[in-house]
Structure formats: C-alpha cells, structure tokens
Design a protein that fits this description.
binds (2S)-amino(hydroxy)ethanoic acid; 2 domains; Alpha-Beta Plaits; binds manganese (II) ion; about 35% helix; 4-stranded antiparallel sheet; alpha/beta; Aminopeptidase
Length: about 425
C-alpha cells in the first residue's frame, strides 16, 4: 500500500463543485430540498451529468434512473470497481449527505487523470436515483433496482394522492419495465468491489477526534404504521372516564417507541415521525389515529425482541383506553456487514494517508446496503459537525472532505489490484 501515489485533492475545485450543486434546490423550503422526482432534483442531475462528463467519464442513465459514469480501465473484461452515492436530499435537508460521495469520486477521477494513473479495472461512478425514503416508504430506489430488490408490487404502491410509484417514474422519463429489467444487466457486467464515501451523520468521529470512520455494518430498518380505532364522541359531554380516545392511545404509543429506543443496550434507536387523528375537529373525541415509527439497529437480535416488546406494550396501552390497534410492520432494509477485505483496505489507506481512523457502525442506511448484494462493499465516513444531518445545519469541513477524498482515492487504487 505504501508505494501508491496519495493524491491531494484540489480543494478549491471541490469547494466550487459543492457550491454549484448547493445552488440547485427548492427555493421555497429551508435548507436544501432536492427530493426524488422533483424539478430541482431533475435540474441537479443534469448538472451532475455534465460534471461527470467534464471529469472525463462516459456517462449514461441506466434503465433504473441512475447516472453511471464510466472510467475505462486497461482491462475492460475485468470485474469493475464501483463507487458513488446520491444527490437527492430529504425535505429541508443538508448539502453534504450523499453529495460527498458523488463529488468526492469525481475529484478522484480527475486526480487519477492528472497523475496519469490508469486503473486496470473500469471504474463506475454512480449517482444512484432517490436514496432518501419517499412517499412510498422506500429508500434507495436506484440501488435497490440494481440489486433486483425493487418489485412490481413496489411500483404499484400509491402515495397519499393516489399516484403510483410507476407513474412517478414515467413522469421522470423512465419506463417502469426498464426499471425492473435493470437488475440483471448491471449484475451481468461483473462487479469487483463497491466503496462509498459518505458523511457520518452522527457525532462519533467528532467526539473521538478521529478523521475517518471505516464502517463495520449498516443498521437494519423496521418501519411501523399503527392504526388506532376508538370511538368518536362529543368532546363537551362525554365524561373523561368513559372515552375511547384513539389519539391518546397513539400518543402513549409514541412514548413507548421512545422508551424502547432509550432502553437499547447496543446501537439501537426508535423514532416516531408522524401522528394523525380523525376527524381532527376540536369538539370531537378522536375516533381514529395513526402513528408512523421506525426502529434501527445493527443488532438483529435486539431489533426483533424490541419489536415484539413494543407491539405488546402498544396493545396493552390501547386496550386500557378501550381502543383497538392494528400494527403493520415493514422492513426498509436488513442489516448488512462491510466485507472484511474492503474494510481492511480502507484502514490501510487511512494509515497511508497518515490520518486517524476507527471502525464505526452506520445507523443511517446507504446505497451500499443494496450494492452489498452484488459484490463485497465498504464505506468511508468523514465527520459531521455536531453529529447533525438531514437538516440545514448539516456541515463537514472542506479539510475533512479532502482527507476523505484522499483515503477514497487510495482505497480505489488498492482495491483495483485486489
Ligand atoms: O434514512 C437514512 O438513513 C438515509 O439517510 N436515507
Ligand atoms: Mn446519504
Ligand atoms: Mn440521508
Ligand atoms: Mn443514506
């Protein structure tokens, strides 16, 4: 590892890229909003596509809506190296989540050319479609498709306005049948290793004063929709002791979700993101309510047990209020481990660059979860200021991004020889 060139990013050029992409967002919301299928997202991908070409990549959009930039290697028949991330955001999100992996990889490509370093293998730099979770409860649309995990059932899902996911693809110029067909084509290409550069989105690296996180595993995500049915009544006349208030049962379920997360002995979290009630009139005791939550952990055992405990607790509390509850669980992704050989190369690359690094689990999900089904994968984390992400305050210092790019370059050069 010690003999390869350690490339030094041109931070001003990288900074300009981040500034240019950050200009493309929904002007009417706080922070950065480029949600999948939106007009700002469409515009941002045109920009990314041009920057990929400027960097010397041969660019095409695959059937699943991913932007794929190819840097030909000396041996086109060899299984390819794959990297990339995403440039869509959550609503009112930040400007580094995903973007670091796409723009950082473009800087690596430019550096390889400027140092006359030719890889043996083709390098695919991919801006995956729609990594963030969306109205269909599905994250990682593009990478999920390539892994063959996006199904016809998913395409039939409808959002709150009754619009199917298939129609959203069509509105974005994509043919849903092509989306489903993209899996086989990509896998047949022959894939060697996948590595993704990403912000940590948590506080660990900053708290420990460490420059690089080498991801050990990516947490499983279980999602819950709890539907409560009580009895609507006149709010002014129904005695407090004789109500079946669906919203009170849902509110107690919110506290039960938090209690589970706070009780996790290992990395485990639980979050309620939304609660609704009907009819929502001030003078009617809510007869119906719904609560949306998720639980995550890299420890499948804890997650399964926590799910079971939570279901029982929500049921008991609802029954205490004379309310019935229906729980619908779904899995956004299973826990996935990084491959030991990629993990080891990233650690040695950080050593060669001369920066500190530590193994860290990822509570956030990433496209790497789905690429892991296609080839061995690893992830490189750079610190998030204050551990904040998915908000306008999301920030990673340019100097930290430059370190991440150097480790990313060193890792790719070494994986190319693996
Ligand atoms: O939800 C996540 O963890 C990711 O940021 N989409
Ligand atoms: Mn991300
Ligand atoms: Mn995200
Ligand atoms: Mn992610």
């Amino acid at each position: 590892m010690a003999d390869f060139a350690v490339l030094d990013p041109v931070t001003e050029r990288v900074r300009q890229d981040f500034a240019a992409l950050a200009e493309i967002r929904d002007p009417d919301t706080d922070g950065w909003t480029r949600t999948v299928f939106s007009e700002p997202y469409r515009a941002s991908r045109d920009w990314v596509r041009r920057r990929m070409a400027d960097a010397g990549l041969t660019v095409h959009a695959d059937g699943a809506g991913n932007l794929v930039g190819v840097l030909p290697g000396r041996d086109p028949a060899a299984p390819a190296l794959v990297t990339g991330s995403h440039t869509d955001t959550v609503a009112a999100g930040g400007r580094f989540d995903g973007v670091v992996g796409v723009l950082g990889s473009l800087e690596v490509v430019r550096q390889l050319a400027e140092h006359d370093l030719r890889l043996d293998r083709d390098l695919l730099v991919i801006d995956f479609l729609g990594e963030e979770s969306n109205d269909y409860g599905l994250s990682c649309l593009g990478s999920r498709s390539l892994a063959g995990e996006l199904t016809a059932e998913h395409l039939d899902r409808r959002d709150l306005h009754g619009v199917s996911l298939a129609e959203r693809y069509r509105g974005f110029g994509l043919d849903p049948s092509e989306v489903l067909a993209s899996a086989g084509r990509f896998a047949r290409r022959g894939l060697h290793r996948y590595v993704e550069l990403h912000i940590e989105q948590g506080p660990v690296l900053e708290d420990r004063g460490v420059s690089i996180g080498v991801v050990t595993a990516i947490a499983a995500i279980r999602r819950l929709v709890a539907s409560f049915a009580g009895r609507p009544d006149h709010a002014g006349t129904r005695p407090m002791g004789d109500r079946a208030d669906a919203l009170v049962a849902a509110a107690e379920a919110v506290l039960a979700v938090r209690q589970e997360g706070c009780g996790a002995p290992v990395h485990g979290v639980a979050t309620t993101s939304r609660i609704e009630s009907e009819p929502g009139s001030p003078n009617v005791v809510p007869g119906l309510a719904r609560m949306y939550a998720e639980m995550r952990s890299v420890d499948d055992g804890w997650l399964t047990e926590a799910q079971r405990r939570l279901a029982a607790e929500i049921g008991h509390r609802a029954a205490d209020h004379g309310v019935t509850v229906d729980l619908t669980w779904s899995s956004d992704n299973e826990r996935v481990s990084a491959s030991p050989d990629v993990h080891e190369v990233i650690g040695r690359a950080a050593d060669a660059v001369g920066v500190s690094w530590e193994p860290v689990p990822s509570g956030a999900t990433h496209d790497a979860v789905h690429l892991a089904r296609l080839c061995p994968m690893g992830m490189i984390f750079v610190p998030s200021r204050g551990g904040r992400s998915h908000c306008p305050d999301e920030w990673t210092d340019p100097a930290d991004i430059a370190i991440g790019i150097r480790v990313h370059a060193a890792t790719l050069l070494e994986l190319d020889r693996l």
